[in-house]
UniProtKB/TrEMBL annotation:
Its cofactor is pyridoxal 5'-phosphate. Pathway: Amino-acid biosynthesis; L-lysine biosynthesis via DAP pathway; L-lysine from DL-2,6-diaminopimelate: step 1/1. Belongs to the Orn/Lys/Arg decarboxylase class-II family. LysA subfamily. It comes from Streptomyces beihaiensis. This is Diaminopimelate decarboxylase.
């Protein structure tokens, strides 16, 4: 979906610019992010849910000040999950009331900052945190709007979902055994917080809508319980993020309007059955917005054929700019980007420059047999959880993010320098 083409000399173009020119100007490795595509995806989510709902972009997928400004301009809200993300959001002018603050172990400092600046909501993740946020808000003379994150007993995995009776993970408060109902009871007793709704996030890179539907049904079930016990109809529910994107041609993601339709229908139906007012819905897509909008451009350094196995193609980055292959066995594709080649495809593995054999960028790839040092190769769909999870392993410098739009390219996160690295070293 990026504005990708081929120039007459065979080089891949993005937003009308040849990647050979991009590499010359910005170096490699580098992430190139299509701003037009990013904005279009924001608009698609916003319009799919309409004015009666809220879309919070999950900043953990990728956050920078430019991104915050685009979100603001496109009418999206922002979900942050650390003081650092909050600081980035505020410094780029995101109004605090459009920020939601998440996390299973927010520090007192983080909570204090969030409450002081007036974030729109804090999502409470534990019994301790209910009390902690209430006390901090009270001390600051504020009443903080909060949601309670519940775990609905649906565990979502890549490409599938498994309904589980007991959840064995760290997030949220279980609906099972009346724990979530007890959390609501506690929250309603405390002056420092105003409980506005219930939150559920079932996982990430999900393709099957059934998991979201079960979650929506169970969250509405809790709203009905709360109404029966306390006589209050909580006005909001958040159904989290998690929508999958296509990393390879095997993946078949849903469109925002399909998700909006499915979620609205199920929530309306369940509310009608329970005789509840339909709450305001919010969602928190991260990957689905930014993932497809960027690719990583690498320069090939060495090509090593292993007889009878495959050819190892080493690039100038690796697990420091994309940890997902090593961490999740994630699948990516790769293409020769600097020229056209008619050579036979050969089985290759794209690896990085780091000092371990698990440093794989693309596990199984077909590249033209004449691939050679100096060629540029592009790995698509690296917009989400690549720069945001990048590291300085081996003291490698983290790559820049360059935004392309209408034939122009500009750096939105600059490349790290050795000076940046050494600045933290006080010995
Ligand atoms: N909301 C909450 C509460 C979340 O925990 C997450 C992701 C999202 C929204 C956004 O999910 P998305 O729409 O991006 O799937 N590092 C992993 C993904 C971890 C996701 C963590 N939470 C990866 O690279 O696949």
């Amino acid at each position: 979906s990026q504005t990708v083409g081929r120039a007459t000399d065979g080089a891949v173009t993005v937003a009308g610019i040849e990647v050979t020119r991009l590499a010359e100007e910005f170096g490699t490795p580098a992430y190139f992010l299509d701003e037009t595509d990013f904005r279009a995806r924001c608009a698609a989510w916003r319009d799919a849910f309409g004015p009666g709902a809220d879309v919070f972009y999950a900043g953990k997928a990728f956050l920078s000040r430019a991104v915050v400004r685009w979100l603001h301009e496109e009418g999206l809200n922002l979900d942050v999950c650390s003081g650092g993300e909050l600081a980035t959001a505020l410094s780029a002018g995101m109004p605090a009331e459009r920020i939601a603050f998440h996390g299973n172990n927010k520090s007192e400092d983080e909570i204090e900052r969030a409450v002081s600046v007036g974030v729109g909501r804090i999502v409470l993740d534990s019994f301790q945190e209910i009390v902690r946020v209430a006390h901090i808000a009270q001390r600051l003379g504020k009443r903080q709007r909060v949601q309670i994150r519940v775990t609905v007993g649906v565990e979502a995995h890549t490409h599938e979902f498994i309904a589980t009776a007991h959840e064995d993970q760290k997030f949220g408060i279980a609906l099972a055994d009346g724990l979530a109902a007890e959390a609501v009871r506690r929250a309603l007793e405390l002056d420092g917080i105003e409980l506005i709704g219930i939150h559920s996030h079932i996982g990430s890179q999900i393709f099957d809508m059934a998991g979201f539907e079960v979650a929506a049904r169970r969250v509405v079930g809790l709203l009905a319980e709360v109404r029966d016990e306390h006589g209050i109809e909580l006005p909001e529910i958040d159904l989290g993020g998690g929508l999958g994107i296509a990393y390879t041609s095997d993946d078949d993601p849903s469109e925002p309007h399909e998700i909006a339709k499915a979620l609205n229908e199920i929530v309306s139906r369940e509310c009608e059955a329970a005789e509840l007012r339909v709450p305001r819905i919010s969602v928190e897509p991260g990957r689905a917005i930014v993932g497809p909008t960027a690719f990583t451009l690498y320069t090939v350094g060495t090509v090593k054929p292993l007889e009878g196995l495959r050819t190892y193609v080493s690039v100038d980055g690796g697990m420091s700019d994309n940890i997902r292959t090593a961490l999740y066995d994630a699948e990516y594709t790769v293409a020769l980007a600097s020229r056209r080649s008619d050579a036979e495809p050969m089985l290759a593995r794209v690896v990085g420059k780091h000092c371990e054999s698990g440093d794989i960028v693309v596990k199984d790839a077909f590249l033209p047999a004449d691939i050679a040092p100096g060629d540029l190769i592009a790995v698509p769909a690296t917009g989400a959880y690549c720069r945001s999870m990048a590291s300085n392993y081996n003291h490698v410098l983290r790559p820049p993010v360059v935004a392309v739009r209408d034939g122009e390219a500009r750096v939105i996160v600059r490349r790290e320098t050795e000076e940046d690295l050494l600045r933290l070293d006080v010995g």
